[in-house]
Description:
Blueprint: H1 2-10, H2 13-23, H3 32-42, E1 44-47, E2 50-53, H4 63-92, H5 104-115, H6 118-128, E3 134-139, E4 142-147, H7 148-152, H8 194-197, H9 199-209, H10 213-231, E5 239-243, H11 246-259, E6 270-274, H12 279-290, E7 294-298, H13 309-318, E8 322-328, H14 340-352, E9 356-360, H15 372-375, E10 383-388, E11 400-404, H16 449-464, H17 469-487, E12 498-500, H18 503-508, E13 516-521, H19 527-536, E14 542-544, E15 548-552, H20 559-584
Parallel strand pairs: 6-7, 6-8, 8-9, 9-10
Antiparallel strand pairs: 1-2, 3-4, 5-11, 10-11, 12-13, 13-15, 14-15
Amino acid sequence: MSQVLNVLAQLDTRAYQEYRPSLKGTSGGDSINLRLLTRLCRGFQVDGDKLTVVGDDISRHTEEILLNAVHSLQYSLGLFWSAHLALAVTSNGLDATGTAGTSVREMFVHLESVLDTKFSQWVPRYAATCPPNSHWIDASGKPKEVGEAIFASSNLQEVPVPAPCSLLSQPDKLFDDCWSTTFLSQSMAPPLKTSMLGMDEMGRRHIARLDLEYHYCCVLPEFKETVLRILHLDQQKAAVNTGANLSELMFKIFVGLQQNMSPYGQKIPVVVSASTDFLSFRAAWRMLERWGWLRAEVLVSVDTLEIAQPILDAIQLHEHDVRLVHITAVSSVWQLSYTEKELMDVIAAARRIGAVVVIDVCQAFCNIEYDFGRILQGNLEDVFIVGSCIKHGRSLEGVGWCAYDPKNSFSKELPSGWCADLTMLNFPMHEPEMKDMGTRLEGGTVANAVHTELFIKQQRLMQDMGLSITAVNQRVQTLQAHFLACLGNDANGSTAFGRVIGWRRRLLHPQARSKVLVIECMHGVSSEKLQAKLAELGFRCDSRHGKFLRLGFDLCHTEANVLCLADAISRLSKESFEKKFIQLV
Length: 585
C-alpha cells in the first residue's frame, strides 16, 4: 500500500492522461479490489472493548495486534482514496466523471464510508474510558482543558475543574429557536439542531450512493443495537426488523398468526384489546375479522385507575380461546401509560394460556423508559414489540420497526418482504427457504434510509451527552409542574379551563408519565377554537374530539416558554367563558 501511495504522489499528471483510458474502470470506484477492501472495513464489529470481523474466527489474534492491524488498514485505505481522488481532481477537475459515469465529487462519498465505520466510532468511546491526563487553566477568564505537554511548557496557573453544566436546562444549545413555542403532540419531540445533525448532507450522501449496501451493512446493524439498547433487550436473543411503517409489520404478524391457527381446530379465535388502541391496530383488526376472529374489546375511560385489570378480566373470561392480546403501552388521545408491573401482569396472563402478545410502543418509545428485559424476564418468546421512530424518537416518517424472537412459535409462518433475504434477489425460479429468521419481518418497502440514520445519529448524540430517556422525562415533568401551577391546578388536577386526563394515575405512577399532557376543556370551551387562538399567538398544539387539548413538552422548552403558554391559555379561556356568560345574560 505504501508503494502505491508513493506512485500516486509522484505520478506525472500528463502521463496519467495518456494511459488513463486503458484502465477502463479498474482504478476508480468500480475497482473490484478496492470495493472488497471497503467492504472489509465496513465489516469490523465492536462490542465493548472487543473487536470482531464478520464471518471470521479471530480468536487466534490478540486484541492489541488486531486493533493496530485494523487501524493500519483503514488508515492506508483512507490515504489511498484521498490520494486517488486528489489526483483525479488535479488531473480532470472536480466535476469530471470516470469510466463508470461517477463524478469525482460523488466519489468522496466512498471515502467517507471507508472512514465512518463502527471501528472509527468505537475508538473515541474507548479513549473516553482511559485515565485523564489533562489540566484546567485560566484562558482569558474562562476555564480551558489542556494536555500535560502544553501545561508543562507554559507558565499558566492551574484552576479547579469546573462543575459540569447539564444540557437538560439549556435548550438553546440543542434545538433551533423555532421549537420554543411548539407543543405539538403528533410530532412531540423535535430533532436536534441542524448544525449538529447535518441533515442535508446526510440526505446527499444516501442519494449519491444510490445503493442499499451502506444501509444494510452499516445503518441497520447499528439501528438494531440502538433499539434493543433503549428497550433493554438482549442483543443475542432479539431481532429488530424495519419497514416503511408500523402497520406493515403488524399486518405481517397477524397474517403469520392466522397461518398458524390450524393446531387449534374449529375454535373461534379471540383477540383481546382496548378501546384506546391506535389506528394501526384497528386497521389490522379488520383483516382478522374477515377471517372469523372475535374481538373482546375492553372499554377504558379517562378516569380509569387500573388500565390493565380489564385486559386481565377479558383474558380470564375467554381463557384458551384467546390467541392474541394487543396492548398500547401509551395510548394516543389520552396518553394513559402502563407501568412495568401492569405490562408484566398482562404478559404473564397471556403466556399462561399460550396467547401471542403485541405491544404497540409507538407513543412510548423514547418517551418513558421501559426495561423490557425485566418485564419479559429475559425472553421475548411470543411477544412482539412494534414501534416507529417518529414522535419521541426525534426522527421523521418512514421508519417502522418490530423487536421479536426469531425462534418464536410461528416464525416460519411470518410473511416476508423481498428485503427480508437479499439472497432472493438472484430471482430463482422457485422460492428459496429463508436463511435467517432474524430478518423475516423486513419490509417489502425499505425503511427511509435517511430517517433511519437520523434516528441513530440523534440517539448516539443524546447518549454521549448523558441525556437518558429517564433524565429527559424527569426534566419534562418539572416543566409540566410549572405549567399546571401557573394554571392554578388543584389536588384533583383541575384548572380554571379544564382538568388533566389521568391525573390520579400520574400521581400514583410518576415513573410512567408521558411527556404529553392532555387536558379536557371545561364545558363551553372548545379545544379546537382554543388551538386556533393559540396558533394566532404563535403557539402550536393540537386538539382531539373538540374537547381535549394535547400539549407535547420536551427539552426544547424552558420554564419561561411554558409559563408564557399557560398565561396565553388562561387569558383565552377567560375570554371564552366571559363571552359565553354575556350571551346567557
